[in-house]
Amino acid sequence: MPGHYDPLLVALSYAVAVFGGYVALDLAHHARAIRQGGGLWMTGAALALGAGIWSMHFIGMLAYRMETAVGYDAGLTVLSFALAVIMSGAGLFAMAHNRPHGLVLPAAGTMTGLGIVGMHYVGMAGLRMEARLSYDTALVAASVAIAIAASTAALWLAFRTTRPLERAAGAVLLGLGVVAMHYTGMAAAGMEAEVAHDAMAEHGAMPALSSSLLAALTGAGTLLLLTLALASSLLTRQRQAEKTAEQDARYRAIVDSAVDPIVVIDERGLIESYNRAAERTFGYTADEAVGRNVSMLMPEPYQTAHDGYLSRYHRTGERHIIGVGREVEGRRKDGSTFPLDLSVAEWRAGKRRLFTGIMRDITARKAAEDTILRARDEAEAAREEALRAQSAAERADRAKTKFLAAASHDLRQPLQSLFFFAHALSDKLDGHPTAPLLASMSESLNGLRVMLDSLLDVSRLDAGVVKPSVTEFALGPLLDRLAEEYAIRASEAGLRLRHVPTAAWTSSDPALVERILRNLIENAIRYSEKGTILLGCRRRNGSVRLAVYDQGIGIPADKTQDIFQEFTQLANPERDRRKGLGLGLAIVKRLAGLLGHTVTLRSEPGRGSAFLVDLPSAAPRPIPKPARAAIERPRGKGLIVIVEDDTIILLSMRAMLEEWGYDVVAAVSADEAIDTLLNIGQRPAMIVADYRLREGRTGVQAIRDIYGVCGVRVPAVVLTGDTDPARIAEVQRSGHRLLHKPVSPTILRDILSSAA
């Protein structure tokens, strides 16, 4: 096209193109770096590049001086600007959101180049002048190639790194490509004069504008807008940088003030962050650790395993420790190792993948766990020792019970024969001068029997064979009878026994309650030298309290629990048998526990004691008064079978029973007794059998065998001197009456009389 260029305006067009390119690339880089608001910045980048290209084209057109007047079609001019913005913006968007490899870079360069070319030739089509434009095909093709090549090279150079210098070089290259394309396109255009002066008016075009001032204003306005856009971008990034710095400072403050080591590594395992707790824990300073492989903080085999784990994770993406806490070992700078807890989290900073490891030195915790384990082992050993001690105590207790049972049996056997012989002899020596001696011997035998019966009571309670028979009964008759019975004994001891009558009722076992009261009364008589013994009860809070008061020696406060133990006697160091064996209160404690009653002791040394027993209260009922019938003593005739392997006892019992007028079959075994019964052909009125017989047989078995011969069940009594709880339980299960040796002749006579 004929004409010439204004050099200053050409230079201005180039400056506008370069500056527009730099602003566009800078905004695109910023949009690429941030996650939120990136679309807005990409729109600004597209507008900046489109405005730079379009302004360069417009200034370049004004820089060309032609002899003909020139105007511009408004629609095509706007379309050229839109093409520059849209096409170049698409190229920038492709580069900002994708890596520059494969087809991304050529596609982005082509779109940007076509945007430049499209803007130029549409803008040229918008010219309105007195000539018709024509184009040289080769130069047009050259202009297109220049635009695409320059755009591709500029985008590659600008997005290859994030460094501002390469971004500026890309902007220079892009501006050069735009200018080169423009002026090549201008060179490709030819003009033929064929339009009249009124052609512009016919086409509605603008009047020709060729003023240098218009070009300068256009360039200045574009540069101002681009400067404002760049300044806005820089200001925003500065604020973001300050915010990031503040966040980094806050993060660093949190990390540095943390009590646990925190280490950040990259994908290669190199340490990027290392807090003060890590310095204290591992002994390395941050300067020594940052940039080195994190395996320096690990002993083998963790060191080799860590490098292998990172490599495997990059290849397969399989996670083994990320997000999962575990115990590992750490290595200090001095080479020492220690246990620690490790948890690893993965996160990303832009395109980079980072890993944060939070560690805790658990040396103290492991030591505490070891201490707890040792304490647990020691406690377990102590428990086993306690169990062994308990087992030994139980064995000793069983041995004691067996010893008492054996001793009781061996003592009762000769004592029983003495009882029977003494009773048989008393009938023959009635009125003889030696009768008082025999009476004294019988009294001694009774004292010995009482002592053995106390041992038996303890064995029976320990065996658990005593079963309470609970019923509701009146306490008044029981207290009256005991007071009447023990009044004579108290008087003989120089004491006074009195009781308070009562109409109270209770719910308990009357026989066992009587045993408790008897032991308490006998204990009061035994340990009182003067004064009064009071027996009574009173109602209190829905219960009945039985009380036995004495004015005896009293009990020290530190001995109030000891006196309920077996064989404990505080005022009998010489073991005077007249003061018992020290079993009475032990039996009271056991019986009260069996019945669920509470025994309380109040005592003051030198002033006496009070034993209190709390029983449940029951509603009173009328007491029937049976008519007294004359008791006629049975004549006692009948056949009695005695099975006893101790010959002395057998002979003494036989002599006594025959003295009473009974017929007696005396045998040392069940077989002998059966043979005798078969010979005489008579059924016995009662069977009396010792528990322990020869050849390991028992009296229970002997009675069962004799039953088989008799054909009917006749009354039977089992005699035993054994206090073994198992033996007692076995006899009671058999249903036969059980008598413990030595048996009082009076009791035996009453039993035989009732059965005959």
Automatic annotation (TrEMBL):
What Enzyme Commission number(s) apply to this enzyme?
A: 2.7.13.3
Record field: catalytic activity: ATP + protein L-histidine = ADP + protein N-phospho-L-histidine
Domain called Response regulatory: residue spans: 639-756
State the CDD domains in the record.
HisKA (cd00082), PAS (cd00130)
Domain Histidine kinase, which positions? 406-619
**4-aspartylphosphate sites (modified residues):** 690
Sequence ranges assigned to domain PAS in this UniProt record: 247-300
Record-linked SMART domains: HATPase_c (SM00387), HisKA (SM00388), PAC (SM00086), PAS (SM00091), REC (SM00448)
Enzyme class of the recorded protein, top EC level: transferase
List the protein's name.
Sensor protein FixL
Organism of origin: Azospirillum doebereinerae
